[in-house]
Amino acid sequence: MNDDKTVRLCKTAVMAALVFLGTYFFKIPSPNGYTHLGDCMIFIAVLVLGGKDAALAGGIGAALADALGGYMIWVVPTFIIKALMAVIMFYICKKGDKGFGLITMALGASVGGAFQVICYTLVKIPIFGMAYAMVRLPGLIVQTVCGIVISIAIAAVLNGSGIIKKIREV
Fold this sequence. Notes:
Layout: H1 3-24, E1 27-30, E2 33-36, H2 38-49, H3 51-68, H4 75-95, H5 102-128, H6 130-161, H7 163-169
Antiparallel strand pairs: 1-2
């Protein structure tokens, strides 16, 4: 492995760990379960890593949190949904007029988040039934919106201080 591959691997591993920590440890109770900060970390990973590496970090970190949290039924769907959510956000941000600005980040995170809400709801229907999926929908929307809002606030601070740019350059 050359230095570039090693740096990419390390940055991806650190972001996967942050996604895991944000999902597994930072839980905020909500009416339909809990809201966590994992989505926020996935959105930040997109800014720091780009598409493919953020997808890996998001998928691995979130799936690991499900596995260690005892939610084995969700490991594979979570890996796929979170990875695709990151890819969607990346491509929307990449196509934006100013790249990874806060407006394009908000748009990308919103579309990726909407994708996540739809996919998790569709996965719940055959497993638990339509009623369960619909009852859990508001909590999932709250979790996704919280992740978007918090990630935009964090990104504003990190962009303003130049940290994201420096991390990308490493």
